């Protein structure tokens, strides 16, 4: 149950958040309205959401870091910088086999979970920095860490709605971990792959209709028309049923509202981590009334899942090109005949 609950929370974080910030002046490397950084007179200045940081050049790159979110591990792993990680929260939600090996050998310590972090252990480990998403309920914990001279860096990658913008957070990790060249190379390659795949998708003359996400209780949290899911579907040359919606957050709908819009749907994607249609019907019998449930194809995000860990929310955060490739394979399989799905799985 806990794994399913966290999967739900992850989807809602990814589709239900929006924050307005001003774009900085041209001398900043602007990743998005939420993240910018620049080198300035021997310092590295960073603006992340509502937070600002200034690091003296002799303080970076970091050599000992702690990560409190699995999604952030994706950036570290992509840069092959796992050796600088000395602590993680909730290792059971980390997919990376290399990280699990380092945990087993005690080179990486478990520093608690989303219910309670082991603050005393974190302080004793003396990390150069802690990376985490900002959660207001942990303000007292963050302040205690800061009072002990531990740098806490808040990142909002989960709020970004452009797949490639989310990927570009790797540039900041490159700056902070001494992997700037590698980060630029990886970003450029992923961006090239992504753009090439968009061109391949446009070769198809068909544009199937798409339904996304699922119900939680009595509410269907449908991705808004400007969310990352909607953007992926558009880039994969398909027609999302809420494509004209202007929200960057989830749109709450009843089953009846979704049913009314679900005629002529060929594909249902991001249908949780279900492994069978029978399982879906046991959770919500109303699904059986949808034409796409009976006549179309349904895909979840359990292609790379081990117990509580799901790589879609780890490496998939960085590898937007691979996620897009999965969507294209689903919507236009004839365009990628030899490719096998990575993060997605068909629910039968």
Spell out the blueprint of helices and strands.
Blueprint: H1 2-15, E1 29-32, E2 35-40, E3 43-48, E4 51-56, E5 65-67, H2 70-78, E6 85-88, H3 97-104, E7 109-110, H4 119-125, E8 129-132, H5 139-147, E9 152-154, H6 163-167, H7 170-176, H8 180-201, E10 209-212, E11 215-216, E12 219-223, H9 228-235, E13 239-240, E14 250-253, H10 255-261, E15 267-269, H11 277-283, H12 291-295, E16 297-300, E17 305-306, E18 309-310, H13 315-318, H14 320-331, E19 345-347
Parallel strand pairs: 5-6, 5-8, 6-7, 8-9, 10-13, 10-15, 15-16
Antiparallel strand pairs: 1-2, 2-3, 3-4, 11-12, 12-14, 16-19, 17-18
Protein name: ABC-type Fe3+-citrate transport system, periplasmic component
Domain Fe/B12 periplasmic-binding: 64-335
Organism: Chryseobacterium indoltheticum
CATH class of the largest domain: Alpha Beta
Report the helical percentage: 25-40%
CATH superfamily of the largest domain: Nitrogenase molybdenum iron protein domain
Largest sheet strand order: 7-6-5-8-9
CATH third-tier fold name of the largest domain: Rossmann fold
Main sheet properties: 5 strands, parallel
Folded structure, characterized:
By secondary structure, the protein is of the alpha/beta class. It has two domains: 20-190, 3-Layer(aba) Sandwich (Rossmann fold); 205-347, 3-Layer(aba) Sandwich (Rossmann fold). Helices cover 36% and strands 20% of the residues. The protein contains 14 helices and 19 strands. It has helices at 2-15, 70-78, 97-104, 119-125, 139-147, 163-167, 170-176, 180-201, 228-235, 255-261, 277-283, 291-295, 315-318, 320-331, and strands at residues 29-32, 35-40, 43-48, 51-56, 65-67, 85-88, 109-110, 129-132, 152-154, 209-212, 215-216, 219-223, 239-240, 250-253, 267-269, 297-300, 305-306, 309-310, 345-347. The chain has a five-stranded parallel sheet. Strands 13-10-15-16-19 form a five-stranded mixed sheet. The longest helix has 22 residues, at 180-201. The chain starts with a helix and ends with a strand. Mean pLDDT is 93; it is low at 1-10 and 12-24.
